[in-house]
Amino acid sequence: MCIHHGQKAIFGDGKQYALPHVFVNPDQLQTFINQMTAVFDGTADPISDINLATVPAEMQFSDIYTAIGAFSAQAYKDGKPPYPMGQESVGVAVRDMDNAVRVAEEHGVKILARWEVMGNQEAMTEWLDGLRIQFYAYAGTPPEIAVRESVSNTRYYLPPRAAERFIKTFLAVTDGRIVGDARHAGEEVGLPGESFRRVWLASSAGLFNVIILSDAQRARLASPWRDIKTDFVVDDLAKVIALAQASQVSVLVPPEAGHSRHPRAVLEFTGGYVIALRQKA
Questions:
Q1: Tens digits of per-residue pLDDT, 80-92?
Q2: What is the DSSP letter of 12?
Q3: Distance between terminal CA atoms of the chain?
């Protein structure tokens, strides 16, 4: 049954149930889990062989719970997730799958597939301009996921028109809101001497960070900036960097490389998963 606030259905189970999807090779999965739990004070479910895909597939996965939120780490044989898996950056928990799919389709979102995994309902959605987000709905009461230092903030780099389309659609589908809209120094995305617009979105289905760049800026966007999938806020960035270095996590951009009032860093974990971190104000 769908729970309502006023006359409108609550779309998602909460921001902490937006789990970044991390795809690694089978021989990298345990190392990735070890790094994440060590760097972010976490725990992980035992590695499972349950198939999460829409078709028969050989894979393993583990859900990881950390101070900066939960993650879904997935490893498919030969590193090749079957269609339509593998292109989504995040999976979000919805209260009522039928309602979520209906509302999404009403606003132009394509439903690429619907399926079940151990009684839980799943759907892969494709938004305007090709962005994919997986929906999932628990068969029963969602497990408790504690919010500690922060939760994931999915990052998208989009040109102006695509950004406006996504923002408008996201707010309409999730009943979300804009919590920040401002220009920022280009140094934050590796474009020194320039500026860009960032729009922060919040909803019951999670947090999203839309970085709006001109076509020329997008063409100049280089690694590691273009590879960042998710943003996080941490209580003690210096401590996280020390733990990352001790766990053989690559510090691609150290905090001292920036000039922001709030120090930032970029890390790369085993399997090529790249994240941005910001010191809590």
A1: 999 999 999 999 9
A2: B
A3: 40
Neighbours of 124 (CB within 10 A): 22
Q: For residue 151, which phi and psi values (nearest 5 degrees)? A: -135, 175
- 3-state DSSP assignment of residue 26: helix
User: Which has the closest alpha carbon to 247: 36, 20, 44, 29?
Assistant: 36
Q: Are 211 and 155 in contact (CB under 8 A)?
A: yes
Q: Does the pTM of the predicted model rise above 0.85?
A: yes
The token duo for 103 is 């509302």
Sign of CA dihedral 196, 267, 75, 80: positive
Q: Which two tokens stand for residue 179?
A: 């919590």
CA distances from 201 to 25, 59, 89, 115 (A): 31, 32, 16, 28
Measured between alpha carbons, how far is 25 from 77 in angstroms, rounded to an integer? 7
Residue 116, beta-bridge partner list: 121
> Two tokens at 202?
């919040």
Is a pLDDT exceeding 50 seen at residue 6?
no
